[in-house]
Amino acid sequence: MNNPATLSGLSHDDWINLQAAEKYIFGGLNEDQRDAYEEHFFSCYECAEEVRWMAIFEAKEKKIFDAPAPGV
Ligand SMILES: [Zn+2]
Question: Which of 1, 9, 13, 56 has a CA 20 to 30 Å removed from the CA of 20?
């Protein structure tokens, strides 16, 4: 057990301070943190949006390396 109680007890501000959305997408959260963060953003609109933006940003970054920009 890796302190799951503590992780699921993290508040919105705690996740923001951890830059959890960025780490969730780009890697940087351990398994317990990912699970706890998922639980949080399923019920937190702000964090869900943050994750969505990070995912879009990450996809764009990949495209930059994969192919020339399509001209937005
Ligand atoms: Zn949140």
Answer: 1
- Could you tell me the distance, in angstroms and rounded to a whole number, from the CA of residue 60 to the centre of ligand 1? 24
Residue 71 domain-assigned (yes or no): no
Domain boundaries, position 46: 4-66
pTM: 0.76
Buried b (16+ CB within 10 A) or exposed e, 21-56: bbbbbeeebeeebbebbeebbeebeebeebbeebee
pLDDT tens string, the chain, 72 residues long: the values are: 445 557 878 999 999 999 999 999 999 999 999 999 999 999 999 999 999 999 999 998 887 667 666 665
Domain count, the chain: 1
Instruction: Quote the ligand 1 centre to 47 CA distance (angstroms).
Output: 4
Residue 72 lies in a domain: no
